[in-house]
User: Which sequence fits this backbone?
């Protein structure tokens, strides 16, 4: 299992993901400046180095410039974090998570219906794949 990343490291990962999974150091700095982020050069370099150590990024030298390449997609990271959260907080019970969301009105009836429709679509897709495999 991958190490957790800090909120600050996540800010940098989001910049890189938003840029298609790769970004030059200069692009990262530009994006941070757009958001009025006050981090100094050394802070950014330290955070990027930590992400490399944690195997979330790799670095490619392009002349004198550094390109940072995501080794984990945003969706993979979200899945990892969701599974970790459900395990830690709900003992692995997705049902308890959904029950909490419904009880606290975090998940509206309309949103729950969307989830059900999504799930039904996944189920139909799996059934169609199975039946097409039997015909071959």
Assistant:
């Amino acid at each position: 299992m991958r190490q957790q990343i800090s909120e600050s490291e996540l800010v940098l990962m989001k910049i890189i993901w938003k840029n298609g999974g790769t970004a030059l150091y200069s692009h990262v700095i530009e994006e941070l400046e757009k958001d009025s982020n006050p981090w100094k050069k050394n802070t950014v370099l330290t955070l990027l180095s930590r992400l490399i150590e944690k195997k979330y990024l790799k670095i490619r030298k392009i002349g004198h410039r550094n390109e940072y390449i995501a080794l984990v997609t945003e969706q993979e990271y979200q899945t990892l974090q969701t599974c970790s959260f459900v395990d830690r907080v709900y003992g692995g019970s997705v049902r308890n998570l959904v029950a909490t969301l419904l009880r606290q009105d975090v998940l509206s009836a309309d949103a729950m219906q969307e989830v059900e429709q999504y799930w039904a679509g996944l189920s139909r897709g799996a059934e169609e794949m199975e039946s097409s495999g039997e015909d071959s």
Observations:
- Residues 105-136 form one domain.
- The two ends are 38 Å apart (CA to CA).
- The beta strands are 22-24, 57-62, 65-70.
- The CA atoms of residues 17 and 49 lie 17 Å apart.
